[in-house]
Amino acid sequence: MKKLQIFTTGGTLDKIYFDALSEFQIGDPVVGPILESMNVGFEFCVDELMRLDSLDMTDEHRQIIQQRVSDSDAEYILIMHGTDGMVETAGWLGEIANKKIIFTGAMQPAAFTDTDAVFNIGCAVGAIQVVEDGVYIVMNGQVFAADRVVKNRAGQCFEEAVSR
């Protein structure tokens, strides 16, 4: 992998809670410091596109993401995204050619002790080095084609979409 371009959009991964009674805020992106602390053996750059809960994301936001990914000269693109809107946003990128694009996020903020953030980021970084060009979602230790995955809210996981 020559260089990894990372785009952040907010989501649970970057959420900060001040106490049990307060509203959350989306803080600074944590993916850069996580990768630095893991002493990764590749170059990466992090561009913050927005700080949104994915439930608040609109088509205009998705268009910004689509344009930035399309305009990027990077072959390897990791998008940190909230899990509720991840599948929808991934669908906006399906026509982009000659890139390996992976979405990941977390069910629990990176600041929490029992977070899945570091695991999901690690899985995404490993997956992006071996997948074919296309758009993928990496969550729960699994790699899914973006057009064949759903979020199971009750089960707090992603799973293969059932075709009808």
Q: What portion of residues belong to β-strands?
A: 25-35%
Strand order of the largest sheet: 4-1-5-6-7-8
Order of helices and strands: EEEHEHEHEHEEEE
CATH fold name: Rossmann fold
The average pLDDT value, as a whole number, equals: 91
Work out the helix count. 4
Strand tally is 10
Please explain how this structure is put together.
By secondary structure, this protein is of the alpha/beta class. The protein has a single domain, classed as L-asparaginase, N-terminal domain (Rossmann fold), CATH 3.40.50. 23% of the residues lie in helices and 32% in strands. It has helices spanning 31-37, 59-71, 86-91, 117-128; strands spanning 3-10, 15-17, 24-26, 43-52, 76-80, 100-104, 134-139, 142-145, 149-152, 157-160. A six-stranded mixed β-sheet has the order 4-1-5-6-7-8. Strand 6 (100-104), helix 4 (117-128) and strand 7 (134-139) form a beta-alpha-beta unit. The protein is globular. The model has no long low-confidence stretch (mean pLDDT 91).
Offer a quick outline of the entry.
The protein has 164 residues and is of the alpha/beta class.
